[in-house]
Write a structure and sequence with these properties.
Rossmann fold; 3-stranded antiparallel beta sheet; 3 domains; globular; binds magnesium ion; binds guanosine-5'-diphosphate; single chain
Length: 371
């Protein structure tokens, strides 16, 4: 199933876009009028926000929504094996082409270069990923010390050493440890979408009883997005407007094996909004608190977000929107600035397909990934 959100000037334009994008079988899950963000929102007409979905499988009347999502998850597993193989092939081709490029320049010379030259080559290459300079330095100091000694070296061999050292700079952790899983982070990074992806996996793949909570009283109607997901997946959803309500809500979800908590996006610079969330978080502990960061975030902003959200006691990381960038330094930088383990990587809008558990080697491998 594909679920998409659209913003249009009116319903008519929105429906044309939905039809064009998702086809004639698309259904509208929800629509509402919203203001554009920021001060301009007050001076421009409201826009129509539409959440639409379409089944991407042939219709089968015997399948309910849950069964359909289950099928997608199974398909996803097969796809991820293929994707991994493709990624590994891509990275090998990239390494070989790096060697070829240098050899072309050196026309006819040996297929190896001095270690210094190889190191300089990869330094320039990795700088494009916007890695933190201190982190980059640490990786190179360790790699060069391993590679030290007489003789020459291929770029591919040097890349392997660097990849291993880069992998050593991140810690990944597997899945859910606590019963309560909270998602925090700046606005629009994909908290709700990631939560929906995880909810689908836990309930349909792992057969867990999942309950959803949203702590959201900044944006009127912001609950609707999660409500649409909860209805599709047939999961209970509770909306909490004040910290003291949390206790009652948790009691109502007592039967659930897992509770996923969504929060309204907090503007990183708004101390009051962040402070306000602290009282909710304190009541939810012990919990896995995921700081969600978009891979498209600039290095300086990642560092600022890591610092600002510290008071919310996050203990895990999720990086989203990997599909929207070619510079993957944010993933490593997030781990470096927060010193927290990375759990999930998200690389698309599809629920539940575009979410995978992070692994150290995969993250390091991203730096050698092409397009
Ligand atoms: N390309 C891409 N878009 C994403 C990803 N995760 C979420 N989004 C989109 O980002 C937008 C904001 O997501 P949302 O979950 O509402 O963000 P929130 O404000 O942090 O809850 C939505 O249009 C999502 O479909 C991702 O991994 N890749
Ligand atoms: Mg949200």
């Amino acid at each position: 199933m594909k679920i998409r959100k659209y913003l249009a000037s009116d319903m008519k334009e929105g429906l044309v876009r939905v039809k064009k994008d998702l086809g004639r079988d698309a259904v509208i899950l929800h629509s509402r009028r919203v203001r554009r963000r920021g001060i301009r929102g007050f001076f421009t007409p409201r826009q129509m926000e539409i959440i639409a979905a379409v089944d991407t499988k042939p219709k089968d009347a015997s399948l309910n929504n849950g069964a359909m999502l289950q099928r997608f998850i199974e398909k996803d597993k097969e796809m991820s094996v293929l994707t991994e193989e493709l990624e590994s092939l891509k990275s090998k081709v990239m390494e070989l082409s790096a060697v070829a490029t240098v050899n072309d320049q050196d026309e006819g010379k040996e297929k190896t270069v001095t270690r210094k030259k190889s190191s300089a080559y990869w330094r320039t290459y990795l700088e494009h990923h916007d890695l933190d300079p201190a982190l980059l330095e640490e990786i190179f100091v360790e790699a060069e010390s391993d590679a030290a000694g007489p003789g020459r070296m291929s770029h591919a061999k040097m890349a392997d050493i660097l990849k291993e050292k880069a992998a050593g700079k991140i810690i990944c952790t597997n899945g859910c440890n606590s019963r309560t899983q909270v998602f925090i982070g700046p606005t629009g990074v994909g908290k709700t979408t990631t939560l929906a992806k995880l909810a689908a996996r836990l309930s349909l793949q792992d057969n867990e009883k999942v309950g959803l909570i949203t702590i959201d009283h900044y944006r009127i109607g912001a609950v609707d997005q999660l409500r649409a997901y909860s209805e599709i997946m047939e999961l209970p959803l509770e909306v909490v407007m004040a910290p003291q309500d949390l206790f009652k809500v948790m009691m109502r979800l007592e039967e659930c094996d897992r509770i996923l908590v969504d929060t309204a996006g907090r503007s990183t610079g708004n101390k009051d909004q962040l402070e306000d969330l602290v009282s909710y978080i304190d009541m939810l502990l012990p919990a896995d608190i995921h700081l969600v960061i978009s891979a498209t975030t600039r290095r300086q902003d990642v560092s600022y977000i890591a610092e600002s959200f510290k008071k919310l006691k996050y203990n895990r990381l999720v990086v989203t929107k990997l599909d929207e960038t070619n510079a993957y330094g944010t993933v490593m930088n997030s781990s470096y600035y927060t010193r927290m383990p990375l759990v999930y990587l998200a690389d698309g809008q599809r629920v539940p397909e575009d979410l995978k558990l992070a692994s150290e080697l995969d993250v390091a491998g991203l730096l050698w990934r092409t397009g």
